[in-house]
Amino acid sequence: MMPVRFTLLRRSLSILAPVAMLAACQPDAKKPPAKVPEVGFVIVRPTTVPLVVTLAGRTTASQSAEVRPQVTGIVRRRFFTEGSIVRQGQTLYQIDPSLYQAASDQAQANLSSALANAEAAQAKADRFKPLAEIEAVAKQDYTDAKAQARQAQAAVAQSRAALATAHINLHFTNVPAPISGRIGRSLFTEGALVSAAQVDPLATIQRLDPIYVDMQQPTADLLALRQNLAKGGTIPTKADVRLILEDGSAYPQSGTVEFTEVVVNESTGTVTLRARFPNPQGLLLPGMFVRAEFAQSAATQAFLVPQQAVSRNAKGETSVLIVSADNKAVARPVVTKATQGAYWVVTSGLKAGDKVITEGLLSAKDGKAVKPVPAGSPMKIADPKRGN
């Protein structure tokens, strides 16, 4: 019995083996073929793109002057309202003029006396001249008379100078505004004793329209800018400067860069740039912290690439996926300088006509086939449950 069962079993296995091998060779009906993902792309072209920088800065008055007394005395009156706008030459304070008026009157009297003496001395010299010629008087007497006349004229000149000084001191009892602008608080009140040698000013005037913004730029950035300009591909620009205020709002007026310092701040390693802004409403006050945005240069062969197309690895290196000639996604390293709106400014790594993938990036893999369509076209996305 055993040999017969063994023989039947062996025959059954020999019949089932080809069937099993045939079934193994047939494709799995449940697993569909892999589908090529669709991706959207944009064709990039080189263009001239301003390279915008953002620098921190502080506002400073375009003019600032301290109001100081030129003479010593008691402040009698103040003629301005603190915080108001004053005009150049406007009288701000009056110092008691009594002593200076008396000094002026005395100088005037001294001048009158000197004029009288000079007139008498000159008349005496004139009388001695013909007498000396006929030797009616000694020539030495005539010489002495002429010398006395000249001394009298010198005394007149001295008296005139003293009178002028007295008039100036009397004029200084009215303290004027040295510049036009907004005046701050008064540090001295009526009745205070002031002098020309005092340390504190009476008040300070600042001109706020226009106003300056002093910005600090690292020397490394400035050096890189100059090297790029020297190499070519980047050109200098003179663009308007925009301000972002402390609360994040934009200042409505634009300014212009006036100059760049030629000295580096050793403690911070920065160079100061100064911009000039109109300030008709007085919104900007000295000492405010602001951020300035402007274009120092423009890249002449740059590409504007949508930001979503640029990826960055752990090392900070940036790259994009482009569509190759055989419709494959290829990773391309690029150099990005800055952003402009919704775009990255790419200065290296791309060439004209490249198809940069901007849509379907999650399904596109480096070196894998893709089905490219222009960005913005309706894209058929495969259902991950059904596979089609």
Please describe what this structure looks like.
- The chain is of the alpha+beta class and 388 residues long.
- The chain is built from four helices and 20 strands.
- It has helices spanning 2-25, 98-133, 139-171, 219-231, and strands spanning 38-43, 47-67, 73-78, 85-86, 91-95, 174-176, 181-183, 193-194, 203-218, 234-236, 242-244, 256-260, 270-277, 289-306, 311-312, 318-323, 329-340, 343-348, 355-359, 371-374.
- Strands 2, 4, 7, 9, 10, 11, 12, 13, 14, 15, 16, 17 and 18 form a 13-stranded antiparallel β-sheet that branches. Strands 6-5-3-8 form a four-stranded antiparallel β-sheet, with no helix packed on it.
- Strand 16 (318-323) and strand 17 form a beta hairpin.
- The longest helix has 36 residues, at 98-133.
- The two termini are 58 Å apart.
- Mean pLDDT is 84; it is low at 382-388.
Range of strand content: 35-45%
Shape: elongated
Low-confidence residue ranges = 382-388
Q: What number is the mean pLDDT?
A: 84
Assign a percent range to the helix content.
25-40%
Give me the secondary-structure category: alpha+beta
Based on DSSP secondary structure assignment, what is the total number of beta strands?
Answer: 20
> What does the largest sheet look like?
13 strands, antiparallel
State Rg. 46 Å
Order of helices and strands: HEEEEEHHEEEEHEEEEEEEEEEE
- Span between termini: 58 Å
Number of distinct helices: 4
